[in-house]
């Protein structure tokens, strides 16, 4: 009981600190919608890098990935982590700097739907509305996965009721997000990124030491068929009555390993494609203080990602050697990080470390909620229904959206047997296929147009649903992760529909050709203002003092 007190005290201190940050930034964040949704484009490289990674990884990094490694061995988490590490680097390398600069040229866009709409000169709001709806649908699922993590955390630590703890944890996230806006999210994500890294490092080192060292650990794991193979998956033998892994003579029973073929490897590597369409990461590129600081952020983010992923996988593997019969279902295995922290660390330190799990869930769910709120307030309400809406009205709509996302996330998370890994993989595929190909085409292909953009988003989303529910169950080559076929279908549709419809106008082509120039372009070569309509051009000239 005393141990629980110290763990709980450490976590309460942490919660209080996170809520305080929300209130500290509330005045600045509420000064305008640009401050609330993008931090006024004044976020430095360290905050940008660590907040992007913390919001991206979520509780999946500290629970889903180690749990997968613990239950079925190295293959699945190893190839997934490799795909994510490569995707992280490429996203920062080929998207970040270009998106930051193009978003300024494209009407100072502050959200991803806003950028797509202005990049393709969509004055009717079709692109922004479709992209905002996609974000809301998949981010509600994402928020639910984070709330699952919170419920499992407190249930495993203290034996508290899962549903009560899930709702209370979700409320903490909701309060500091609705009060503090984007800046509070970025600052808390930065702190949480540091805490997640500290938690992984401490538990990893402690686990290896307690398991008897690297040599003995590897020998134990090699004795489990296929457990540390990159081309096989260990097969826990389950009791058909209870669904739990069978234990005989104090040892967990495994059957013959299953082959991990090239299709499955490609599926796991395909996770990296998702980064090109992840709004919670892409919005960090929009908000960084200067495009020239992207390189520094890339180094920080990639280093954090590689070390954290490697530690998470190793914790699951070594955890099996240390506690071979402790967790007997795939769902229970997702608590291995918590169990190890409780076993290895002093109570207060354990409280700090497991706060890393809550940190991961808070950072991600808050990012998803603020982006979903911005999609509804900025892109649907102001962009489609009320173009003259004030910032105050937009933020009211955004906060109502936060309430709806909070409630829907709780509904998704109500089933405590939900697999964090599976829930995340579905939402990841949906966002990656809907926005990833479009983002690459928007930044690198001048012929892409509005029709192609709409076709790409709709086809990507539809393919994820169809492939996951109808095609994937067929097995064989069709069992590939739905992100890859959906990504390719979306890319093909963008290209085909762009080529068979009207070419981009001169305005769009000029912006594309010069958005990487210094200084950033403001006029066409002829001197005409960068707008499409004659009346708007005249008004712009009057404002700039060029008209008499």
UniProtKB/TrEMBL annotation:
GO terms for biological process: proline transport. It comes from the Bacteria. Belongs to the sodium:solute symporter (SSF) (TC 2.A.21) family. It is found in: Cell membrane. It is a multi-pass membrane protein. The keyword Transmembrane applies. Pfam families: SSF. This is Sodium/proline symporter. One of its GO terms (cellular component) is plasma membrane. The chain crosses the membrane at residues 6-25, 69-92, 126-150, 162-183, 195-215, 260-278, 299-323, 335-360, 396-414, 426-445, 452-470, 476-500. It catalyses: L-proline(in) + Na(+)(in) = L-proline(out) + Na(+)(out). Keywords: Amino-acid transport, Cell membrane, Ion transport, Membrane, Sodium, Sodium transport, Symport, Transmembrane, Transmembrane helix, Transport. InterPro entries: Na/Glc_symporter_sf, Na/Pro_symporter, Na/solute_symporter, Sodium:Solute_Symporter. One of its GO terms (molecular function) is sodium ion binding. Catalyzes the sodium-dependent uptake of extracellular L-proline. The lineage of its organism: Bacteria, Bacillati, Actinomycetota, Actinomycetes, Bifidobacteriales.
